Amino acid sequence: MKNSTLVKNDFLKELQKEARAQKKLNEERVFPEFFDEVTSFIGVYSWQTLLVLALITATLVEIF
Amino acid sequence: MANIAGFGINHSNTGGDFLVGEAWLATKQGSYMKKRKVVLSATYSLGQISVGLILHPYQTMQALVREKVFIWMSLLPSLVLMSTTLLWKIAVVPLVRFVFSCSELSGMVFSCDWLDFVSNAIAFYCIYWQLLLFYLLIRFNSAYRNKL
Q1: Do A58 and B117 touch (CB under 8 A)?
Q2: Which helix (H) or strand (E) holds B96?
């Protein structure tokens, strides 16, 4: 019982540490706040966004 | 006198020799299994990382930079582009030109005119993917260097 509590506490500490790291990472801004929605969209739908961009660029190259 | 396929184990020997032979065989098989496991494990890891870099580049790159392993995998898009280009020039284009008569089929849905478009699309996809991975690599590198 004592051991499982210790494991649980360790896990919670790790979780808190990871949460702090992620928060700090999110606060370190590279692009202005204006781009937040765009960057999070690219983060979630990465390959789809890249594919659409690649198709658009290839189409533009074909046209011009 | 039975000789097990090339391992030179003589079963007509005394029990001691037999045990030594068995132990040697077990060691040999063990090392083979170990090598097999290492190869399988490495292949599995590389596959997992590749899929991760395609589907979830943010999380995967973060994990790679944090753990400082397989960072060279951030060059995956370039490797894919190089191998695809080679494959494209050696196999795909000659095969399509051989199977379809390009002059007759031009204007149809699957004609040779599409080859340029598809190859451009693949190349641009790999370039954008590589740029994204480089950006993430630099971003996470600087973040973890500043003791995140």
Answers
A1: yes
A2: helix B93-99
A55 touches chain B (CB under 8 A): yes
Nearest to A53 among B56, B58, B128 (CB): B128
Distance CA A12, CA B54 (A): 31
Domain ranges of chain B: 1-55, 70-148
Q: What is the pLDDT of residue A26?
A: 79
Preferred mutation among A26, A27, A47 to probe B, highest tally of B CBs within 10 A: A47
Q: Which pLDDT value is given to residue B144?
A: 85
* Complex prediction ipTM: 0.78
CB proximity list for B9: less than 8 A, separation 6 or greater: B2, B3, B18, B21, B22, B24, B25
Under-50 pLDDT residues of chain B: 1-12
DSSP state of B14: -
Residues of B whose CB is below 8 A from A59: 117
Contact B139 A30 (CB under 8 A): yes
Enclosing H/E stretch for B72: none
